[in-house]
Sequence to fold (353 residues):
Amino acid sequence: MENVVLKVAIFMASFFVASAFPSPFSPTAPILGSILRSLGFRELSVAAYSLTDSPWGGGPYTIFAPTDASLSVCGSCSVSRILQEHTLPGIFSVNYLRTLAFGTKLETMVPGRCITITSDLLNGTKVFLGGAEIDRPNLFNNGFVVVHGLSGFVSHLSPFSCILGPAQAVPAFSVMRLMLRDASMRLRISGYSVLALALRVKYAELAGLQNVTVFGVDDAAIFAGGQAYVRDVRFHIVPNRLLMASDLEEMPAATVLPTLERNQTLVVTTAGGGGVLEPMRINHVRITSPNVVHNLKIVVHGLSKPFPHLNDPPVAQASSCEIEGSMDGYESCALAPTLEIKSTAEIDDHHGL
Fold:
C-alpha cells in the first residue's frame, strides 16, 4: 500500500479557525500538566511547558502518552523531547487514524520529525504509533486536547523520519540500509555512541540481513570497564530475527539464539515472567533497557555489561554468575538441554570490528 506523508495540512484549517476565534479552552502549560497528571502521566506532566513554548503552542493537540513505567527504561531520553515527538498539532481520533494508509507519516510538534501510523493488517482494529500500540484510546477529549495511551514509546525520531518512497519500489536491502542509518543516529543521541559506530563498521555485513536484534552496552558502561564489548560486538547480534522485549519474555529457559559470531550462541538462562526479583537473563546477564531503539528492521536492547561466553572454562562461567548474583535459585551456571533457534541465512565469518 502506498505510503503517504501528511504534514497535517488537512488539520490546518481547524488550527486557524481556533486562532481567529477565541476558544473557550486555550491550553497552557499548567492546564496541560494537570490533564496529564490526572491521567497518571506524571513524567509527561512535568514537561508540558515544552508544548506551549513550541510554534504550535496554541493548540489543538493530540498527545500519544507513554506510561511512566515505559519511560523509566530510557534514562538518557529527554522527556520534553519525547512529549513533543509524541504530540501532533490537530485533533486525531483513533477512528480517523484507522482510515489512514498503512505507513502514513504525520509530522509532530518537532518540525521535520514524523511518526509512522500503521494498523493491524488482519482486521485493522489495532493502531500503532511507530510500532507502539495505542492500547487506551480517547483517555481525554475536550475538543481541543486529545490524549491516547500507548503501550510503549517511540525513541527519539531521526531527521530521516519524514522521508519515504513507494514501499513496493524499495528493495529489501535498501530498506535495511535506511533502518541501519536511522538506528545509528538514534543510538548516538541515546547514549550508545560506541554501538552506533560499531553498526557503521559492520554496515556491509548487516545490510544483507532481513532483520537484526542487537544487545548493546551504553557508553558509560563501556568506559567503566565494559571494553570487552567493543571486540566482541558480533557475539551480541542475532541475525534475521526481530525480537522485541515481549518476544524475549515468552522464550523458555535454555532457548538458544544464533549470533553473527560463527559457532557462538546465546542462551536464555532465566526465562521471563518472574518480575523484578527474577528478571529474564541471557547468558546470565539481564536486559536493563528493553527496546531502547527499534524500527521496521532493527531492535536494540540495553545491557548492564557484555555477555560472557558460556563455553568458557567452568571458572569463568562461575565468575560471570557471581557478578550478576544468583536470582534463579540455582547454585551453578549449569544449563539444561537447549532449544535452538537457527538463523535463516548463512553468515560470513568476520571477526572483531
Confidence is low (pLDDT under 50) at residues 1-26, 312-338, 342-353. The longest helix spans residues 172-188. The longest strand covers residues 132-141.
